Amino acid sequence: MVFTVRFILLLVFCTCVSAEERFNRLGVDDGLPNATIYSVQQDKSGYLWLGSTNSGLLRFDGYRFDEFAVLTAAELQQNQTPDVGAVLIDKHDNIWAGTWGLGLSRLDAGTQTLHRYTEAHGLAGNQIQALMLDAQHRLWVGTTSGLSRINADDSIDNVGSGTEQTALADQRIWSLAQTDDGTVWIGTSAGLHSWREDRGLGPVIELVNDADSLSRKNEIRALAVWQNKLWVGSRQGLFRYEPEEQQFIAQPLAQAEPLVNVLFADNSEHQLLIGSYNGLHRLIPASVDMVDVKQQLSHVNVRSIMRDRSGVLWLGSRESGLYRNVVSSEAFSDIGSISPGLSEQEPFSVTAILKRQDTVWLGSTDALYRIQLSDGQFTRQALNTRVNAIAADKSGQVYIATDTGLYRFTDGTTEKIDMPFDLTNVSNRNVRDLYIDATDTLYLGMWGEGVIAWQPTEHRVQHWLAELSQTSVGNAVQQVFVGTDRQLWVATRYSGLFQIDLPSGKIQQYSTAANSAITLQHNNVQCVSEQAGILAICSRDGLILYNRITTEQKLLGRENGLPSEIVLGVLQQKQQLWVMTAKGLAHRLSEQQRFSNYNSRDGMVSTELNTNSVYADDNQILFGSMGGLVVVEPELLKANVYIPGPTLSAVVIDHQEQQLKPHGQPWGVIKLSPENHTVNFEFSALDYQDPQRNQFHYKLEGINSEWVLAGARNSAFYANLPVGSYPLLLKASNNHGVFSEPRVVATLQILPHWWQQSWVQYSAIAIA
Fold it and tell me: What's the sign of the alpha-carbon dihedral 361, 403, 489, 482?
């Protein structure tokens, strides 16, 4: 049975106070057949396996949920699909599924066969609650009526049964764990037991001495080994167990005594994760003590936790569906991180940004905002015009460029400045950009009026490119920038890029002309910047990097990983390149060849960035977007560098789905009889950071001469193919554009009609 994911993104947690991890939810509307997921595991191929209520064992490839039988055909005739509460994948990639009432099943990776273990085979019970593989690769099975161990030869030993000299204090087993010294720890309804190879089962250690058995205070619901310590989850909260003292030490969490369901040692992130009836807690080392740093998803009853190999954190819940974190979301926050009060106001488009000392200035389509970082207090001043740029001189004097002129902020108010326009006799005072150099000279990029340089203290102006509006109607300066050697760079809307040598006044133009020293793909240049001799030029056809020393020029576009070739802004900082595009943000370290892309699915408040609206300091980068302020902490940014595994996850012939391969084995030869006319291949990258952004290139050799981009679908459809044998090649990318090498995932063989077979044709020729 297959259940297809239709919608992936549903933000279930975020905060406007600071950058927090966000989670997406997958539910019934997204193809999940049941909203209760008790276990999540990942096999060697990359598939996720889920234990669910009423839907049994499910496999998830990022796009669809497939149900796999854990009962034999004869059992299925007598029973409905069982509840699977525990899933474990061993070193051989065998999948173990513990059911509630129907025993234990093993899907063998090598033989593709199903093996069953029940009370009739010697198992302590049929209601499976916990599974654990020990250091000797023996499987420990905790049930509601005892503890069993399945050995390598498939023999079963029962531990601590009522018939043994040393018995478990209670036969209901909630949890299992093994410490490095080989001790197996057993969590029961009556307390904690230990088991060692040399001395067997130890006596019970109670969490609460002499507690009423009906109170369930000694129920050891979860166990985990983290930082060489045994951690215990109970109905009273979280504890650390000290074996030498046989003492439980309480670990207070953000919520008083949460009822703990599951513990997960998240070693890759150096934290202990605690799933409770009321959400997810995180414990991290802080000096000597442990500190609960976050509690999230307070409405979710978390029952399972797993981090996959690409870094995605998965949470299974009771009656709330399946959750996965947005990996880079902690790096992104919004305006609430600097002003909680402003975040409660109506959202606005941020068109210009300046950060100076303890103040952040934001421009919008009709107002100027000033935020005090010390307390988050803000003031709003209506300007009734779009703010295009904000800059400050060395004394801290702030200037604001708008559609209707230039303003200066003085003593809490803005005053309009007319001097540079009066001195140049300019009538159109639409200032599109503003730059202030080290001499406190203001460079004003004008709509149709070129560039004005104004020295306020000397009442002196210079005017260049005044004829822009005469060359093309609507021509405008889009950005001005003073680089090294006192070179003024001017990006224009229709006339390309200008370089003005300030000492001499010499002007050089770069355009699409064949004789241009810097070749532009388009004369619409959105922005320009320079760092370490590298000139970055933004256009509607990609980003141009021009080395002023070697004159080497590179054009970066979608093939280099940019989400769009319409570049709206660029920031070169600390050997990193940040590119603002029409489809989000791209980031690249200097030593990397490809960009990693980020948008609203990664935690940005909006994908739609505003042209040249960016400001950076040593700790943060602020981007202006149509949906508000995007705050980025680069140190927390996590690019997905995991190389995906291109996989043929399903095959549909004439609208009939073929038998699935549960462990990702190659499909081999797929045969179509003469009566078959269509085949549909479904792909997966088995990378779950954001499957909707994974890409697939495929080629059916002998049919496709070039690679075909699958586009918005993760599939390829063919109909009425000629007789022959055709290898299917597949390449896949993750959400940040990292591609795999091509892989042959199957061979399609189109069988001939009887009269098309060679022996028939040769016979016909012979007869003729």
Answer: negative
